Amino acid sequence: LFLCFLLHKREMFLSSLNNARTTTTTSGGGGGGGVWSRAFLGSSRRSNISAARRRSSSSQRNHHHQQNRRVLVVTAAKKKKKSSSSKTTTSNDGKEKEELDDSSTAEALPRIEGDPTVDVSSEDVIGEDKRADDAFEEGGAADSLEEEEVVAVSEIPRPKKKKGTKKSQMVSSSSFNIASADPTLLGAGVGAIGLIAYFLWTKMQKRRAKSSPEGEDEEVFDMGGSGGSGSGGRGKEIGAAQTATGGIDKASDSDFYASLNKAAKSGGVEGTGENAPVGASNLPPGLRMFTTMDGEEGEDGGGASTSTSSEKTKEKEKVKPKQPQRVQPMSREFKRLCRDCVDELRRFQTVDLNGRKLGDDGAKIIAEGIAFNETASCVDFGANGFGETAMLAITEAMSQNKKLRMVSFASNPLLDVGVIALANYLKTDTKITTLNINSCSFGDDGAKALAEALKSNTSITSLEMNNNAIDYEGSTALAQALAQNDTLEHVSLQGNYVGALGTVALANALVDNSSLKSLTLNGNDIGNEGCVKLCEALSKRKTKLTNLDIGNNAIGPDSGAALCDYLKDDDALTHLNLYMNELSDDGAVKMSPALKDNATLKNLDIGGNNIGALGAMALSKSLKENTALTTLELGYNPIGKDGGIALAESLKFHAKIETLRVGWCKIGKEGAAALADTITYNESLTTLDLRGNELGDDGVRSLGKSLAVVNEHLSTLDLGYNEIKDEGAFALAAAIKNNAEGALENVSVNNNYITKLGEVALIEAAELVAELNEDRELYVQF
After folding, report:
1. Nearest one of 522, 531, 518 to 497, comparing CA atoms
2. Taking burial as the number of CB atoms within 10 A of a residue's CB, which of 296, 318, 356, 453 is the most buried?
3. What's the predicted TM-score (pTM) here?
4. Are 323 and 213 in contact (CB under 8 A)?
């Protein structure tokens, strides 16, 4: 823009100066004005010839005036030829001196580009000067020859236009004298052009580095005619065609495509002929950049003419190697986040770094804080995007740490390679006791590496590998490690692919193991076969398990007897999870006798097993004699009102159940009334879950009657999803107000049909409880 501004100012200055000169010439009058204008426009050949013709037509002028005119023409031509001399010899006539000064001043001015009067080369002017001198010398001796001299001058032959291309004519017509140019303008122009060129060059380099694969530059920009070492005769023919037509840029479109089709015919390409396709293999190397596919690139930039169709198919099926990912610069926020993590590692014993999204780069930074940690003993690295690189950095730092005991890498994409790196560290580690690698996307290879580490590791007591892809091979390797390891106490393989065969391998290994106390195989599809083998192996084991989770494993009623025998033999088991299996009534009936004499089991979860009223009655009968069980989960079993009534009767005076969950069991308002009567007499029940049992307002009224009289133990009551309306809410609120000093602390009535009126009534009841009890508040969930 600045350059355009300077050029515009220069044109305005030259235009104003030209107008001023023209005005001065017009005011002078006579023949001098014409001479001034012609001299100002450059004293070209055509202007001199036209002046001579005008002189020949004006024969009435006197001899003195015509002689001065010839002298002026010759002097002006000589002055242009000899640009070094600034002045010439003038005659004694004042008018001639004035005209010569004006012509020299005009020629000193710079030429204006685009002036049609200066479209004459310097050679033509010099030739014209010579002819004018000869005419002047021949006619200067006598005045009688004046008319002939004028005619001779007017008959000077016009030089013929030089034949050439349009480009050469344009160059000659737009000749520019660089010596007369302003150096400031030239510098500004060169600087602007340089800046633009540098900007475009940097843009092209960045785009090429971003999009072009390595090693493709030679292929893409090879504009030669050979076509590479593998192109053969076809490449030579194309190069010859380019040479004959003057190159691709100079050849016409028809000739260019004709040469391509000719090369395609002779190249041995499939489908050749008159209508042969012009594809990437037929194009010159320089044009393949527009048509090359991912699988067609080779060392020569195209397929060889001698390759078969099968080889071409294989080349097309090849996948281009993945380009290495560019290292992104760390942002200021990311560096600050890493510094905060390192600071937490130095200040707190338990550090939660879960979900910080540190990645491999962040792991390298916080590794320093881990290596020099003297405070943190429990660190959660979960959900940070750690991979193999991060594990290598962290394990190297952990080898220098002497304080860390519990580590979690859950929800990190470690894969097999990352777990292998971790296992290599665990082989020699003597500090880590708890390791969590849940949801780390590793399979059998990672499990095998961990198994090898467990054979020599003597410090890990708890290992969780939930929700991975461990199959039979990995399960077998872990089983062998368990047979040799004597320190591991808790193993969790929930959500893997252990299956019946893997469970059998684990069961056989557990017979020889003396340290394991907790085993979780939830969601591994072990079936009846795996359950039976596992129960048999656990019964033979000298050291008994305290926690067994085999829920969601498609265990049917055929496993009921094996479970019953195991419960009789295991005098240390406290938690048994059979949730979401298929025991049904038969399995419940077979297993229930073991509950009569069991004195250790405290938590039993048999929810979601399709147990009906018959199974519920059998379990209720066994619970009357059981004094150890404190938590019973029967949810999602259609026991009905009969099963609910039987269960309520067993809990009224005999069982020691503290938490009873019978949600979605279809007990109805009759079952609710029976449980309400149990609340009045039971001295142990603290939590009652009655969700989804279609109690309605009548069922809530029954519960309210018991709660209004006496409630010394029940603190949590869940009545969600029971189609309760405002009447039921009013009854419950009245019961709470009548027994404001009772034990109730949490009431849930969510997902019912209670309006604002019912909500206000319950809120007022909760406020009354808070007023009458300084150490207790009632929380109501709507």
Report:
1. 522
2. 453
3. 0.61
4. yes
